[in-house]
Amino acid sequence: MKNLPVLFLLISTFTFSQSFQTPFEKGNGNQTTTFDEMRKFYQELAKQYPSISYETKGEDDNGAPIDVVIFNPTKQSFEDARKGKSVLFVNNGIHPGEPDGIDATMMLMRDLATGKIKAPKNVIFTAIANYNVSGMMNRGRFSRANQNGPEEYGFRGNARNYDLNRDFIKTDSKNSRSFQQIFQWLKPDVFIDNHVSNGADYQYTFTYISTNKERLGTILGNYFNDEMQKTLLKNMEKKGVISVPYVNIHGDVPDGGFPAFVDSPRYATGYTTLFNSIGTVVETHMLKPYKDRVKVTYDYMVDNLNYIDENYKTIQQKRAENLKQYKVGNRYALAWKLDSTKYENIDFKGFEAKYKPSDISGKTRLWYDRNSKFSKPVKFYNTYVPAKEITIPKYYVIPQSEWKIIDLLRLNQIKMIPIKQDSAITVEQYRIKDFKTVPNPYEGHYLHYDTFVTKESGKTKFRAGDFIVPLNQDGVKFLLETLEPEAVDSYFNWNFFDAMLGQKEYYSVYVFEDTAAKLLKENKALKTAFEMEKSINPKFAQDGDAQLDWVYKHSEYYEKTHRLYPIFRIN
User: Fold this and answer.
1) Which of 82, 75, 70 is nearest to 128 (CA)?
2) Is the dihedral of CA 247, 249, 250, 253 positive or negative?
3) Closest Cα partner for 490 from 277, 275, 273, 264?
4) For the segment 287-321, what is each residue's pLDDT rounded down to a tens digit?
5) What is the gyration radius of the CA atoms in the chain, in angstroms?
6) Where, residue-wise, is CATH 3.40.630.10 in the chain?
7) Superfamily of structural domain 29-325
8) Distance separating alpha carbons of residues 518 and 557, to the nearest angstrom
9) Where is the Peptidase M14 domain (predicted)?
10) How far apart are CA 554 and CA 512, in angstroms?
């Protein structure tokens, strides 16, 4: 009779676990939950188990709720419980046609709550149940033409057709605003973004993107790349799950090697890296059975929980040390290039690539022979070096007229100090000298790239209410990547400042001809520079309109604010 309570507890736990089967588990292994089923599951789970909380923390562009689920076995609030612990944060369903993580996280939260798997003592497990809610609601069977299951799934774009995994800096969607609010609330040590891959065919079910070690920072990046991720993958291998870095090629075969994917700040892990969080993108292989993909996604999250539980103090220490690299006056890389001299040989397990005539066109087409497996060394290029650097300033100064920028900085909990009274401050300012622009719309923008600036210094008048932004804060990398116009995903490159690229005043040729002649006659230095330009530039020497424009742009009549970047630096 003494063992009766224990027996009752075991039976109760088993019964509850069975009653909380997910739609994926109830199905044939090739079906994924709907949005309504997912919400009902978590709401019921939270009612039954105090360790689970399920809260609406954001909003999709279609007005539907974005929910956060937390496993917290303590009786404290999240804010109190996180003290002295690490936080693992998982994002699911950014592309709802890739729902593996949605189903895997439902099972994992249930298994932690019911005690089916051992709960970590030093980790709080948090997740966005599904991020792209409107995409999840837009279910179909055919949009993922290259993917093997599930039978029905959501759509990649959200209600406004944004790819949310390009929106973490420009923040065009309510989804992105919600994510940033959630992220800044959770402040995770480790982040996982669950996806499904595209590209070549090979033997692996589990592939992954480790956030670039160089962009993460030398101390934390090397620890993650050399220690943490390798240990996680070895633990996966013990379960029979082989893995390979995301095969970053499209339309070609991997046999010749491939580079590490560059997760710039527009992507989820690129954004989270800016705040010193370790990040992995899980990329299960599109052609493997859905049931297998869900399992390896589940396994990787479990292994992360176990690893973080054992090493949470080391992770927190590395994060603190890593942040010290970004001090005022230090150099910071705004752009990176692949170092093709450095690589590691991967024992790549693939299928032989072959070619045959296309049944459609008769032209030669690629196919992979799954009966011809191979294992051979393939080069993985995983080292990037700085291509462009700047010096970290002490402060930025942002006029209050740039209210959209200020709003996004506040969203990301950036510290800003309002100027108390009108002041003249010695600052450095950029002038946009050159940039290129993509020819077609990209995610709602005509994205700039290869931006080049020159520097100008002097005293500038600022008004009371303008903001001084110190770089000595946790968001230093976010500030540099958004406010330095030459950074790949800067606010400038995402068109936030396009208005200042337009010239507001100009001249009539027949009027300014006489003015220009007088200027050249009276200003010897201007005349000398003008003649020099003609002598070294034959095309210019033959172009009367260009010569008149040159004089105008080198005169007092040319508006001084044209292409003058309205964010200032104090060094």
Assistant:
1) 70
2) negative
3) 264
4) 999 999 999 999 999 999 999 999 999 999 999 99
5) 28
6) 29-325
7) Zn peptidases (3.40.630.10)
8) 13
9) 38-171
10) 13
